[in-house]
Design brief:
CATH class of the largest domain: Alpha Beta
CATH topology of the largest domain: BirA Bifunctional Protein, domain 2
Shape: elongated
Strand content: 15-25%
């Protein structure tokens, strides 16, 4: 069977009217980002592989399509994430010691779908702040992320807050004490992600550190859960206490300046392995996975020679469309030479007013299905009337 007309599994295309809905949303979102003082950049779809995988974990490596550059012979990667590209731009293309705000929008490609039936070609929009190490910077990108949801028509989003520093500090202490072997570190990460306290306990001993780690999945709820976390993690290393302080202050800032439901998950482990501070994500009951997510990734640019604090988020705009309706198109009939000039003048006038006008190319062409109005000549003047009249 011939398959030259088929798309690869997980690769989708947008057709009318959804394609136009995505384009309109992209414009609205970027207008918001620019209004917040973010500068638009457009990174390339492919780069040298080592640049794309800067500071990332194994999961991003597995999601990156790889090809050999026929010009240089080096490995290229098709981007699966745009954050590392923004890091490179901050480090080498737009060098400054000041705070820098960058935004972007474009497709990325996954080697495999993240979840069943999901697209391997999401359309990501995002924003990053470089050079600011305060929680005010995290609060700003969260505010922008929530405004993105508003622009997309997402009502009553749920914001989830976490902090990677809590988990990282506990793991570092577990490794130092011998309660966790390096070979089991990856398994522990997956167990905490799955919120499986039983599996966590099986990997560790019965030490206080192990018990504190096993309780992480239970520490989720509204902002008041932070008080419970302070009690259960009271004997944890100092970096855990600092991370809890940051998380509490960030939650207070977000609640003060935004209208949304805030939930805290002390065991939230998200991202592609480069997040090392507060992390955040937006959920909605009508969607099964996060609509937007991000976090802090200080120092990731060190490999580029620029170790800067950084925070940001991205959102798959494709996941925010789906209610598109066909555009209202005015149909202009095919006419003879004598009346063509007057008809074209009417068409130009309608288009100047923002109307979409489709002109017939022959007398046999009929109004399209999305046509609600058509041009007809009434008393020598071209006027729009409902189709069918």
């Amino acid at each position: 069977m011939k398959t030259h007309w088929r798309l690869p599994r997980g690769v989708d295309e947008l057709l009318p009217p959804a394609a136009w809905e995505l384009e309109l949303l992209r414009r609205k979102v970027l207008d918001v980002y620019v209004s917040w003082g973010f500068e638009y950049v457009e990174p390339p779809v492919i780069e040298y592989l080592e640049s794309l995988l800067v500071g990332s974990g194994e999961d991003l490596d597995l999601q990156t399509l790889k090809v050999v550059d026929q010009v240089s012979g080096k490995q290229l990667g098709v981007r699966a994430d745009m954050t590392s590209q923004a890091v490179r731009i901050d480090a080498h293309s737009l060098i400054t010691d000041d705070v820098q705000r960058l935004c972007y929008a474009g497709p990325v490609v996954f080697a495999n779908p993240q979840i069943a039936q999901s697209s391997r070609v999401p359309f990501k929009a995002g924003a990053e702040i470089f050079g600011a190490d305060s929680i005010e910077a995290d609060a700003e990108v969260i505010g922008l992320m929530l405004e993105t949801m508003g622009v997309a028509g997402v009502v009553e989003p749920v914001l989830l807050l976490g902090h990677m520093g809590i988990y990282h500090a506990l793991v570092e202490a577990l490794l130092a004490s011998g309660a966790l072997g390096e070979a089991d570190e990856g398994d522990l990460f997956k167990c905490v992600q799955r919120k499986s306290q039983a599996d966590i306990a099986q990997l560790l001993d019965d030490s206080d550190l192990a018990q504190m780690t096993a309780c992480l999945p239970s520490l989720m709820g509204d902002a008041s859960v932070l008080a419970e976390a302070r009690t259960l993690l009271a004997a944890a290393p100092a970096p855990v206490q600092s991370a809890l302080d940051e998380l509490e202050n960030l939650a207070a800032l977000v609640i003060e300046h935004n209208s949304c439901v805030v939930r805290v998950d002390v065991a939230e482990l998200s991202g592609y392995g480069y997040h090392n501070g507060p992390v955040f994500a937006v959920y909605h009951p009508e969607h099964g996975s996060a609509l937007a997510q991000g976090g802090r990734y200080d120092g990731v640019g060190e490999v580029f020679g620029r170790q800067r604090p950084a925070t940001g988020f991205d959102v798959n705009l494709k996941s925010l469309i789906g209610n598109a309706q066909a555009a209202d198109v005015v149909f202009a009939p095919y006419v003879g030479q004598k009346t063509r000039a007057e008809l074209q003048q009417a068409v130009r006038a309608l288009r100047a007013q923002g109307e979409a006008v489709r002109c017939a190319l022959s007398a046999q062409e009929s109004p399209p299905g999305n046509c609600r109005r058509q041009l007809v000549q009434v008393d020598g003047r071209w006027q729009t009337v409902p189709c069918g009249e």
